[in-house]
Amino acid sequence: MLFESLKVGPLELPNRALMAPMTRSRAGSGGVPGSQAGLYYAQRAEAGLIVTEGVQPSAIGQGYMDTPGLHTAAQVEGWREVTGAVHAAGGRIFAQLLHTGRVSHPDNNGGLDSLAPSAVPTKEKIYTRTGLADIPVPREMSTKDVEQTVSDFVQAARNAVEAGFDGVELHGANGYLIHQFLAANTNRRNDSYGGSVAGRLRFAVEVAEAVSAAIGAERVGFRMSPENPYNEIEEPDAATVYPALVDALPESLAYVHLIASPDLDLNLELRKRWAGVLVVNATHEQPVHQETIDAWFGRGADALSFGRAWLANPDLLRRLTIGAPLNDPDPATFFGGDHRGYVDYPVLTDSTTAS
């Protein structure tokens, strides 16, 4: 099933092996994609759909060093080169829009204070130019801040279309801003954006609706990660929150991208409730096991996304097709650096295939 075509919005994907978003921290000055970003993504154009690394929709949405944005003219031009390279190679590409919320540092975003649903600090640390640093207590967002942030997502989505992207994915997972609104331990608001489950869902749904209205829901994906404790998220009520979230999202979204919960019953419930395309990111196994692939398709996934396997294997689809061994990813080169561990992973040749 992995090698079958799939319709996602207006796109006809030639296969169901998607490339998951992965932070690479190789953007140039001003959040412009680095000079080799086009090559990196074009090398992986055989993926059914590429979802880029997280791209900040605003300066204040940046958390980590050297991550790219989609809020300036220079960034749009930089991404236009990337999308052009991917399309020339026959691929399809969505930009993942990521606002990190409280997971930020002024040294990384031009001196701006971080924003979050509530002024709840994290004990996590973050890398800056001067080394590993404590993350400051974020500023609780006012209603005006919330409205501005929704507008920032909308403008970034429009910029993505201008830059040639086929669509955008909203990052509502892994403890970043949208996820911070969903989780009660990071959202302690008592206004209409907090408190009840419906209140905690409101920001996520408003962003999805506003972006959908701006560029078309068929070009918008939404990523979620129920019960993922990354960045100190706690979700004891995930079995209530996420079915309600899926029910509240625009029905015509291109897809929902689910980072599988450890609760299999919750995953199955979300599949049952979401009538559209469901992409599942279920494993970081190396090598990728066919049993895992078969199991998720058997549970109703429409497509699977792979992260590190694509990172280390530009020709992952070909390797999976013929059962060839996979390159091992090099964690030392995941974030930052030069071409090494970025665009130099070897691909199969006729001679290596034959041997």
Structure report:
With 355 residues, the protein is of the alpha/beta class. It has a single domain (6-306), classed as Aldolase class I (TIM Barrel). It has helices at residues 37-42, 73-88, 143-162, 177-182, 197-215, 238-248, 264-273, 290-298, 308-312, 316-322, 350-354; strands at 6-8, 11-13, 17-19, 50-55, 93-97, 115-116, 125-128, 131-134, 139-140, 167-172, 220-224, 255-259, 278-281, 303-306. An 8-stranded parallel β-sheet has the order 3-14-13-12-11-10-5-4. A two-stranded antiparallel sheet has the order 1-2. β12, α7 and β13 (278-281) form a beta-alpha-beta unit. The radius of gyration is 19 Å and the shape is globular. The model has no long low-confidence stretch (mean pLDDT 95).
What descriptors fit this protein?
single chain, 355 residues, alpha/beta, TIM Barrel, eight-stranded parallel beta sheet, two-stranded antiparallel sheet, 11 helices, 32% helix, globular
Q: Radius of gyration, rounded?
A: 19 Å
| CATH C-level name | Alpha Beta
Strand content: 15-25%
Strand arrangement in the largest pleated sheet: 3-14-13-12-11-10-5-4
CATH architecture tag: Alpha-Beta Barrel
Subunit organisation of the chains: single chain
Q: What share of residues is helical?
A: 25-40%
